[in-house]
Every structure is written in structure tokens, then in C-alpha cells.
Design brief:
heterotrimer, A mainly alpha (about 325), B alpha+beta (about 525), C mainly alpha (about 300), A: about 325 residues, mainly alpha, MetI-like fold, 14 helices, C: about 300 residues, 13 helices
Chain lengths: ~325, ~525, ~300
């Protein structure tokens, strides 16, 4: 059926993009300068023997792409006994390697961090979407008045405001009133208890607000313009003449039409929001993946970087796929084509 | 943050001294929150280069460092050496256990020392040179045999040889020891145990109830990590942390008038230096191999400006590589390095480095312009300010040096490969000069040792051996003075400044016993403890 | 009405242009306008660090004792330079990719568009971080990394427009008289697409400036150059917050805001004029050309609507 065809194409594309990202990811980190082995132990006083052991452990003793030696000796199957081969096979086993800096498995580190960033993004986006929709609708409804004008001005200004700068401003304002760093007060509450989550919530306020403001302006502007456009249509006048209330008009027509652009922009915004998360996590010391990436860049901890990057890209691809699915449900044109 | 290449008592001390006194209500558990920009690199004591504060809290050694170059008994109650200084006997304390309940006796101590030597534990083994045998004669007697007598057996050699519980470590294959990161690596006989650790966020330590000196007065210590130095100050200001050591100088004006905050400063074994690469096989230009050029560079550095901008006045101009904090070992005969652009220019003129094409940069005899790579790490914004000043000075004497910033790890890799020209570092080290003097020996050029400049002199090496075995303190001091004179003339390093170490704490919550920055926790802990009973 | 006339009838366009002109003048005439040369060295005392505003220093002094106002002025140069240069790179690549994939279509065209989709999906800032870590800090590297990641929007627009143009009469006629493809693209298609490219590039510049300031703020900029982002980096790291040195902390951020806003206003106005399809569905969003992704319902061109687009 047509709809499945569309979905199928989207899924295939997503998988293809994934494949490209996987290869690109490996490649990117193999062109890092310097010998990674020297960075493994920051104490350079490591015996040659210990260095070799570590080299083997991290698989750095094999050739990078394909193992021509094994190929030449007739061992076709051994062609992939290389770093790249190890990377791929590890990937399929779900093993992302060991962090240079922390000596623990990258999987563990990422699992720890990703949900914190996810929490931050989720909180920020929910507030942004809800806030953006409400203000956008109000502004559109009051199109042409000072309400609309101020919404527009504020929206534009917050859109142009660099995320990290907004974070700094909020930091300065709320210092002492709200927690400005970390995710919890260490040791204050046991993990999983209500107090713990309240603590997390308190720490979440400033960083999530910072993220939300940037996105909210985009959502607000889209919502506003969509609703303005719809309200100008002739059939709205007809509906009003028929006696439909404002709320009904909004619900049945304006919002429905606005959903498609909203979904699009939320998806498009995702990559951008991830960049915002890096800035917010740095300013507020939020222990998420953004900060992990930043710290790992400084430490040249490339297993972590590789894993984090892959994880991020995969998440964004998935999110886009979900959006495409939503599209196919919402957009009648796609069904019809 | 200032990254220490080999951080030492500095960290340990301050924390503990603070821990010694508590004014909080005794019924609720007392908690000291410490702010830092970097808690620890790895937990494994055989490889970690940071976290000396925590290591001092988890583990113990036979002898513990006290203030300055003084020491106090640790796991060893007393010790004596044979007439020839080759056999040392230690009386080991009884009744000590590791925090997991297993006994800690001479047997475990011997095992630990032997294990470090056998497995060449990177962070520790360099201290255990010249040891031929370690044996537990019985559970309370430990015997160490040396290949030759050394002057610092008591003052330096054993201070970092943490006594570990064998059952945790003995089954690990030697190749895997360095990578072992299980939380059980923190088990020792010390006053605190690690109960929670989130890398990059926080570490929670609880007082060891079975500690042989008695449980510590502060029930819990929490380390919190922050993204930048100023965040530490901000946290202290709002009371999110109680104590920070290594206070960034730029933050001092923000807290010096705060009635709730107490600042302590001490001239510590910290210094700021510019490493010059003139390794024969390195990648630096030939001109850097000329001592006149190095001298001219030295004269072009505006040390006072560096002290004003980077350290806000909390430092002294540097000259000798042994720091002022090392007491008598510091060679006071070496004069202050003058800031003299005119003289530096004259030196270079006379040595034949002229600017023939009029572009403001002098040329080497083969025509290549004098251009150097000038680098520092990105750990602190102040570092960049420092090399900007150095770069300006070099421009004044016709040398082009473009300031660059790289990550610490990248710079270390460069040093190991001898692929650099000038790198600025901030370090500190322990009070005994043995380690620091070893940096300039030829031996440290091999296998990624600590020698970063390529300086190698048989004369210096001979002096090094001599000081390592000179039992007479005055004799040793003289030798070390001689070594400083050589280094000051050859200039493998240009010492920029000796910096104070500053700590600050909330005096509305804790009383701190003012101590010299180099004391260690145990000593400070129990001194502090005795003073708190009056409050 | 010509584009220019339409442009200056829009209040947002006038405002944006005025804001932009101010910054450009300041950047160009920096040496004349700045009371001090911030790149010149200065001998200072500890008291000079973070000195609050006074008669000699309108916005006070920074962590090295240098005049903040002068840095703000000179900072405009770097921020604008990077913004323009990076966008030039984006414009070049985006136009080329868009023209080729739109005109030739086929497998090449498809592959190129897949590349565009791929780059759009990959999050920008993490990738920039990693690339800078690999390549090293430096002005050229920043320009390249921002430019190499920012061309996708231009490519999309150009392709879409090329697709619709290439079926038009004058193109087919040119082909029939034997004009080469290259000639057709350059002489016929490109001029038609140019206005769209210009509008999009203006918006790209605003995004590039934001990107540069983020990178500099994170410490990955060229430390020898004074840019608004690097000022914020020093401010935060060296204690402007704890010392409440708002004169060092706030102006650079507001400067970035000012320029970005100006460019968005101008770019958005241009877009509305040159891209007929989005005239009715107005999107202020700097980098989101939603209209090209979802086909829009036919838009009624009523007078009321044009006036709504303010």
C-alpha cells in the first residue's frame, strides 16, 4: 500500500544513513593526531611491555582498515582482522570499547549519561512545545495587536540569543536561589526516592529553562504563522457565520493545520537542540552526554567520543524516523500520493 | 584549574587539616563538601597521577609526611637502620585492619612493596629504587634491604608506597593491573572509605569506624566537581561547598571581604615554568640549542607582569628549579633573573643573530627566522594570558612565537615525542628534592621519562647519584645547590614564578587549624581534633 | 516593484538594516572608534583587573586589565569575518551541489541529496567540536568547519528552484539551439536562483556567527583573536560571575544578539520577497525552510495577507 511504501523508503534511508554514520564515525577518530597509546596512561613512565599489552588490549596492533597480510597468506576470512573489522564486530555485539580516561566500558559511561541528557532535552522540549503553542495561538488570535507584536519581538530576540549566553544570564540571576550546577546534591537523597527526584527536578529548572527558551521561540513563531494563515482563510468566516465558537474553530481547523509544520520543525530542531544541550551542560555542569563529549575532546578519549557521537546521531535518525511516521499519519497528501 | 603534573601533599593536606575541626552540632553527621575542578583521574593507585588527597585518605604508608620535610610514624611505629645504612628495620603497629576487616600487618606491607617493585607500578616504583629485598620477619617486623645507603629513606622513599590488601590484587595478571578499576581498589587501612563515586560529578567518603587512630571527626567528605575554576568560587559564595583548595587567584577579590569565608595562603612547592626543547633528536630549531638564545629568552620574560595578571600578585619571581618552598635546598645564591630587553637584544646581536631582511625577526646562521612554537594547555584561562606575555617579550627581542593552546594530553604526547619548542607548565611536587632533581638526568630521557628538554650531562648525573646517597644533610644540600647552578646556566627550563597555594573555606561552618600547606592529613587531622574539643 | 523597493517598505527590513549597518560601521572603522588597541600589550597592576567602568574605560576592564569597550569593537571584526567567510563557503558549496543535483538529477542528484539529508541529520555542534579537536584551533579551521556543515539549506533551496526552472521555456529553447549544460546553468539558471541564495546566505551568516561564538565560548576558538565568544569564555573562566563584573560579562552576549537579530530581520525580509512560495507562510526561523520540505497548500494572495507579513 502506498503508505507502507513511503514508510519503507524512509526506513531504508534511515538504515543507509546509519551505515554511513558508522563508517564515518570510525574514520573520523582514526585521523586523530598523536599516538593514542601515549594518551592511555598519562604517566609516560610506562614500560614498553606494558604499552604493548595495552596496545593489544585496545586492538591498536592491527592494521586500520583491512588486513592485507592475512589476505596475502591466503586467509580470505582474515581480511577483516583489522581495527575496522574489530570495530564493526564489536558494534554488532553492542560493545563500544573501553574509555581511555576512565578505564570503564564506554557502554556504561554512555548509558549513565544519555538518560540525563534525555531528561534535560525532554523537560526542555515539553516546556518549549507547550509554551510555544500557547503563546503562538494567543498571538495569532490577537493578530495585529500589541500582544501579537510583543510576542513577535520577544520570540525573535530569544531566537537570536545564543544559548550559552542565556544560560550565563540565568546563572547570574538565580545564583543562590536555585542550584546552578550538577544534577543532584551528592549523597543528599537515596537514588530512586522521591527526595532524589525532587532534587533532580530542582537542579533541572535552570538548564531546562535555558534550552526551552530557544526552542520555544521557534515553535511559537511557527504556530503563530500557521494559525494566522488559517484564520485568514475564507472557510473560517463561513464557520464563524455558522455559529462555531472560537475554541472549536481553533481546535478543528487552526491546530490541525498547524500540526504538520510543528512536527516538521520539532524534528528539524533536534540536531540544533543537541548543540544547545552541549552549551547548557557546560554552563550548568549538568552531567550529560554533551558535557561528556566536551570533556572527552579535551582528554582525547576517543572510544568515548566515538560511542557518544554514534549514539547521538542514531538518536537523531530515530527521532526523524518517528517524525516521518507521524507525518504519514497526519498528512493526507502523503496518503493520497 | 591548574593541572599538576605530579600533585602532592598539597591536596591531601589541606583537606585534612580542615577535617580536623568541626563546629557543627554533634548530633547530626558532619559533612564537609569540597569543591574541585577535577576529582581524580583513575581510582587505581598504581597508575593514577592525581587524587593524592583521596589516596591519602584511603590508604596508609609506613611513614607519613607531616609539615614541610618532617615525617611522622604511619603503619610503622618506629624504625632503625643498620650501621652501614643498608638494612632498615620497621616495627609495625599491631591491631590495624583494612577497611574490609582483613588484617594489615608487616606481611601485607612487605607484600605491597614487593608487588610494586615486581610489577613496576608506574606511579610508585620510581620511589622504590635501590631496594633489593623487603621481608616480613614476623607480623610486626619489616625489614628493607638497600643496595646502597640513601639519605631519604625516611623522608621520601616510603611516602607513596601505599599498603594494600593482597587478596584484592594478587590474582590479577600483571598486564591487567593498570586497567583494574573496580571500586575495591580503594580499600586500604586509612581513615576514610569510598562509598560512592560518579566520575566527573562527585565522590563520597565516609569515616572508617575501625581506623586505628580513631574515627575521623568529620563523618563524611564529599568532593564535587565543577566545570571551571570560577564555579568553585561561586559555589563557596553560596555555601554549596565548604572548602576549596587551589583557589583561582582571580577569585580572591570576590571572597576576601566575605565575612563567612576564610582564606589561607602559603608558599608551596608550586612553580610555573617554560620547558625548552633542545633534544638532539627533537623537532625544535637549532637556535634553541644555543644557550645564549635561551638566556636571551629568559631575560625577555616580564615575570612581574605574569605575576600580576595570572597570579594577582600571589607569587614570587622564579629562578632556580628547586622551589622556595623546599626550604634549605633552595639555592639563594642564584640571583633574580633580570627583565632586560636591551641586554637580551645585545646578547643576540653579539651572538650573530641579526635581522637581515628587516621584518623584525632575527635569523639563524642558515637564514631561517627565529620562530618558535609556544604552547600551553587549556586547563586554565590564565595559562593563555601567561604565554601572551611571553610572546610579547619575545617579539621585543626579535623572536616570533605565536601562542597556541592544546589539551594537556596532547602536550604530554608532544613532550614524550620531543616534538615541541616551548611549553608552559604549572607543577608541584613533594618536599624532598630527589624526584625533581631526577627530571634532568640522562636516564629520564628513555622510554617516555620525565626529562622533557633533552638536557643530559654526565656531570649533572654524577651529582644526582651523589645527592641520592649523601647522608650528611649539609653535604646533600651543597650538591643540590651545585645542581641548581648548572641548570640555571644551561636553562632546560625557564622558571617563571613560584606560586602560592591558596585555600578557602566557610568559617561559619568549620574551624581550620592554620597549617603550612605541606602537612598531611593524618598529622593535621589529629592536631585539629585536639583543638576542637574546646569549642 | 523592484526587490529593493519592496525591501525598504518593510519595517523589519529597515530596522534590521539599520542594526546591521551600525555593526558594520563599527567593525570597519574599529581602529578609529576604539579608544585603545586591545591587541597592544599593557603593563597592569592587580587592581586593574576587572576594574569597573570609569571615565577612561567606558565598559571597564577585563581579566588582563584591557579595555572592554575596545575589545567589543574589535570583536565585531572577528565575529563578522568568520560569519561572512563561513557563509561564503556554505554558499559556494550549497549552490554547486544544488545546481548539479537539480539540473542533472539522476543518480548523482539523488546521491547528493542523500548527502544533504545525512548532514542535516547529524548534530552540528558535536561534530564541530570533534573536528576542531582533530584539526586544531585556528581561524581558518573554524571558518572551514562552520562552512562545511552549513551548506545544506542553500543546497536544498537551490535544487528545488533549479528543478522548477529547468522545465521552463527559455531553458528548453536554449537546449534546442545547442547551448551546453554548463552555459545554461550559469547564464540562465543561476541568475534566477541568485536572489534566493542571497536571502538564504544572509540567514546563514547569522547562524555562522552563533556557531563561531559557541565554539569560541567553549574554548575552541583561536585564542589569539578577540571575538565576542572568546570574551565570554575568558569572562566565565576568569571570574566575572563571582566578581560580578557585569561590564565584561554582558556586553559581548548582547552584541552577538544584536548582530544575529539584525541578520535575521534582513534575511527574513529578503526571503519573503524573493521566494514567492513562502510569502504566505512566513517563517522567521533562520535555518528552517519548512516550506521546501512540505508542499504547501495553494496560498491565497490577498492584500490582507501581504500586510500581515510584518
Amino acid at each position: 500500500m502506498i503508505q507502507f511504501d513511503y514508510l519503507f523508503r524512509k526506513i531504508v534511508f534511515a538504515l543507509l544513513t546509519l551505515a554511513v554514520i558508522i563508517v564515518f564515525n570510525f574514520f573520523l577518530f582514526r585521523i586523530l593526531p598523536g599516538d593514542p597509546i601515549k594518551l592511555l596512561f598519562r604517566n609516560p613512565r610506562m614500560t614498553k611491555q606494558a604499552q604493548e599489552t595495552i596496545r593489544v588490549q585496545f586492538g591498536l596492533d592491527k592494521p586500520v582498515w583491512i588486513n592485507t597480510e592475512r589476505l596475502q597468506s591466503g586467509d580470505i576470512g582474515g581480511i577483516f582482522d583489522s581495527q575496522f573489522g574489530a570495530y564493526i564486530s564489536n558494534l554488532f555485539q553492542g560493545n563500544l570499547g573501553i574509555s581511555f580516561a576512565q578505564r570503564s566500558s564506554v557502554n556504561e559511561i554512555l548509558a549513565e549519561r544519555i538518560w540525563r541528557t534525555a531528561l534535560l532535552l525532554f523537560a526542555g522540549e515539553v516546556v518549549a512545545i507547550v509554551g510555544g503553542i500557547i503563546v503562538g495561538v494567543v498571538a495569532a488570535w490577537r493578530h495585529g495587536t500589541w500582544v501579537d507584536a510583543s510576542a513577535l519581538i520577544i520570540g525573535l530576540t530569544t531566537w537570536a540569543l545564543p544559548t550559552f549566553f542565556l544560560g550565563i544570564i540565568l546563572l547570574v540571576i538565580a545564583r543562590g536561589v536555585l542550584p546552578t550546577s550538577g544534577m543532584v546534591e551528592p549523597g543528599a537523597a537515596k537514588e530512586g526516592t522521591i527526595e532524589y527526584w525532587l532534587d533532580v527536578g530542582r537542579h533541572l529548572i535552570l538548564p531546562a529553562t535555558t534550552l526551552a527558551v530557544g526552542s520555544a521561540s521557534a515553535y511559537m513563531l511557527i504556530m503563530r504563522s500557521s494559525v494566522v494563515e488559517v484564520l485568514a482563510e475564507d472557510y473560517i468566516l463561513t464557520a464563524k457565520a455558522k455559529g462555531l465558537s472560537n475554541i472549536q474553530i481553533l481546535k478543528n481547523h487552526a491546530l490541525k493545520n498547524a500540526m504538520l509544520p510543528m512536527v516538521t520543525i520539532i524534528a528539524l530542531n533536534l540536531g540544533y537542540v543537541v548543540g544547545g544541550a552541549i552549551q547548557v551542560e557546560t554552563v550548568f555542569s549538568w552531567p550529560g552526554i554533551g558535557r561528556l563529549i566536551f570533556d572527552s575532546v579535551a582528554k582525547q578519549d576517543y572510544p568515548v567520543l566515538q560511542g557518544a557521537f554514534l549514539l547521538l546521531a542514531v538518536s537523531v535518525i530515530l527521532a526523524n524516523l518517528v517524525t516521518d511516521v507521524l507525518y504519514s499519519i497526519l498528512d493526507p497528501r502523503i496518503k493520497a500520493s | 584549574m591548574s593541572i599538576f603534573k605530579r600533585p602532592f601533599q598539597l591536596c591531601i593536606v589541606l583537606i585534612i587539616a580542615l577535617v580536623g575541626s568541626v563546629t557543627v552540632a554533634q548530633d547530626s553527621p558532619s559533612k564537609l563538601t569540597v569543591g574541585t575542578t577535577y576529582i581524580i583521574d583513575v581510582l587505581n593507585p598504581t597508575t593514577s597521577l592525581y587524587g593524592y588527597a583521596q589516596k591519602g585518605l584511603f590508604y596508609e604508608t609506613l611513614i607519613e609526611a607531616a609539615d614541610g620535610a618532617n615525617v611522622i610514624p604511619g603503619l610503622a611505629e618506629s624504625w632503625s637502620s643498620s650501621e652501614d645504612g643498608l638494612v632498615w628495620t620497621f616495627k609495625i603497629r599491631e591491631g590495624v585492619t583494612f577497611s574490609d576487616g582483613t588484617p594489615c600487618t608487616a606481611v601485607e606491607a612487605a607484600w605491597s612493596l614487593n608487588w610494586y617493585i615486581e610489577t613496576s607500578a608506574p606511579a610508585i616504583v620510581s620511589y622504590l629504587t635501590n631496594i633489593t629485598a623487603v621481608e616480613a620477619l614476623d607480623p610486626t617486623t619489616l625489614q628493607i634491604t638497600l643496595s646502597q645507603p640513601v639519605p631519604n629513606m625516611v623522608t621520601a622513599k616510603l611516602l607513596y608506597a601505599y599498603i594494600l590488601p593482597p587478596h584484592i590484587w594478587q590474582d590479577i595478571p600483571p598486564d591487567e593491573i593498570g586497567m583494574y578499576e573496580d571500586p575495591s581498589v580503594t580499600i586500604g587501612s586509612g581513615p576514610y572509605v569510598m562509598t560512592d563515586y560518579q566520575p566527573g560529578e562527585y565522590m563520597i567518603l565516609d569515616a572508617n569506624p575501625n581506623y586505628w587512630r580513631g574515627p575521623a571527626p568529620v563523618d563524611q567528605i564529599v568532593y564535587r566537581e565543577y566545570g571551571n575554576e570560577d564555579a568553585l568560587i561561586q559555589a563557596l559564595q553560596v555555601g554549596e561547598v565548604d572548602y576549596i583548595y587551589g583557589v583561582p587567584f582571580t577569585g580572591i577579590p570576590a571572597i576576601e571581604n566575605d565575612p563567612n569565608i576564610q582564606i589561607d595562603s602559603a608558599l608551596a612547592n608550586k612553580w610555573s615554568e617554560l620547558s625548552v626543547n633542545w633534544t638532539p633528536d627533537g623537532t625544535s630549531p637549532a637556535s634553541l640549542h644555543d644557550p645564549i638564545v635561551r638566556k636571551a629568552i629568559d631575560y625577555s620574560i616580564d615575570r612581574q607582569q605574569i605575576i600580576n595578571i595570572a597570579y594577582l600578585g600571589y607569587a614570587l619571581p622564579g629562578n632556580a628549579f628547586i622551589t622556595m618552598g623546599m626550604g634549605a635546598f633552595y639555592n639563594t645564591d642564584i640571583g633574580e633573573i633580570p627583565y632586560d630587553i636591551a641586554q637580551a637584544n645585545q646578547m643576540l646581536d653579539e651572538a650573530g643573530y641579526v635581522d637581515s631582511d628587516g621584518d623584525g625577526i632575527r635569523e639563524y646562521s642558515d637564514g631561517t627566522p627565529l620562530e618558535y612554537r609556544l604552547m600551553t594547555d587549556d586547563s586554565a584561562a590564565a595559562n593563555f594570558r601567561i604565554i601572551q606575555i611571553i610572546s610579547d617579550g619575545l617579539a621585543d627581542i626579535g623572536i616570533s612565537a605565536f601562542p597556541e593552546v592544546e589539551s594537556t594530553d596532547s602536550l604530554i604526547a608532544r613532550q614524550v615525542d620531543f616534538d615541541y619548542d616551548l611549553i608552559h607548565w604549572e607543577w608541584d611536587t613533594d618536599a624532598d628534592p630527589h624526584f625533581l632533581t631526577s627530571v634532568f638526568t640522562c636516564a629520564e630521557m628513555q622510554d617516555g621519562g620525565w626529562n622533557d628538554s633533552g638536557f643530559c650531562s654526565p656531570e649533572y648525573d654524577a651529582l644526582f647519584e651523589a645527592q641520592a646517597t649523601a647522608l650528611n644533610p649539609d653535604e646533600r644540600k651543597d650538591i643540590i645547590w651545585q645542581m641548581q647552578t648548572i641548570i640555571a646556566e644551561e636553562r632546560p627550563w625557564l622558571i617563571l614564578a613560584y606560586t602560592d597555594s591558596i585555600s578557602a573555606y566557610r568559617k561559619d561552618r568549620f574551624i581550620f587549624d592554620p597549617l603550612n600547606a605541606i602537612s598531611t592529613m593524618k598529622w593535621a587531622l589529629y592536631t585539629g581534633f585536639s583543638q576542637v574539643s574546646g569549642s | 516593484m523592484t526587490v529593493a523597493q519592496e525591501f525598504f517598505r518593510k519595517p523589519q527590513a529597515i530596522l534590521g538594516s539599520a542594526m546591521l549597518a551600525l555593526v558594520l560601521i563599527i567593525a570597519v572603522f574599529a581602529p578609529l572608534l576604539a579608544p585603545y588597541d586591545p591587541y597592544e600589550r599593557l603593563r597592569v597592576q592587580p587592581d586593574d583587573l576587572f576594574a569597573p567602568p570609569d571615565a577612561e574605560h567606558f565598559l571597564g576592564r577585563d581579566d588582563a586589565g584591557k579595555d572592554v569597550w575596545s575589545q567589543l569593537i574589535y570583536g565585531a571584526r572577528v565575529s563578522l569575518l568568520v560569519g561572512f567567510a563561513a557563509s561564503l563557503v556554505s554558499m559556494g558549496i550549497g549552490t554547486a551541489v544544488g545546481l548539479i543535483s537539480g539540473y542533472y538529477g539522476g543518480t548523482v542528484g539523488n546521491l547528493l541529496m542523500r548527502l544533504v539529508d545525512f548532514l542535516m541529520v547529524v548534530p552540528d555542534l558535536p561534530l564541530m567540536l570533534v573536528v576542531i579537536a582533530v584539526w586544531g584551533r585556528g581561524l581558518l579551521n573554524i571558518i572551514l568547519v562552520i562552512g562545511l556543515l552549513g551548506w545544506t539549506y542553500t543546497a536544498r533551496i537551490v535544487r528545488s528552484q533549479t528543478l522548477s526552472i529547468k522545465e521552463r521555456q527559455f531553458i528548453l529553447r536554449s537546449k534546442s539551439i545547442g547551448a551546453s549544460n554548463a552555459r545554461i546553468i550559469l547564464r540562465h539558471v543561476l541568475p534566477q536562483v541568485m536572489p534566493l541564495i542571497v536571502a538564504q546566505t544572509v540567514l546563514d551568516i547569522s547562524a555562522s556567527i552563533l556557531a563561531e561564538s559557541s565554539l569560541s565560548f567553549l574554548g575552541l576558538g583561536d585564542p589569539n583573536l578577540i571575538s565576542w565568544g572568546s570574551m565570554l569564555n575568558f569572562a566565565l573562566d576568569r571570574g566575572a560571575v563571582s566578581r560580578q563584573a557585569w561590564w565584561f560579562l554582558l556586553p559581548p552576549g548582547f552584541a552577538i544578539l544584536w548582530v544575529t537579530l539584525a541578520l535575521i530581520l534582513v534575511g527574513n525580509s529578503l526571503e519573503q520577497i524573493v521566494n514567492p512560495r513562502i510569502k504566505s507562510h512566513h517563517l522567521f526561523d533562520a535555518r528552517r525552510m519548512v516550506s521546501l520540505i512540505i508542499p504547501l497548500p495553494p496560498a491565497p494572495q490577498s492584500l490582507k495577507e501581504s500586510q500581515d507579513n510584518s
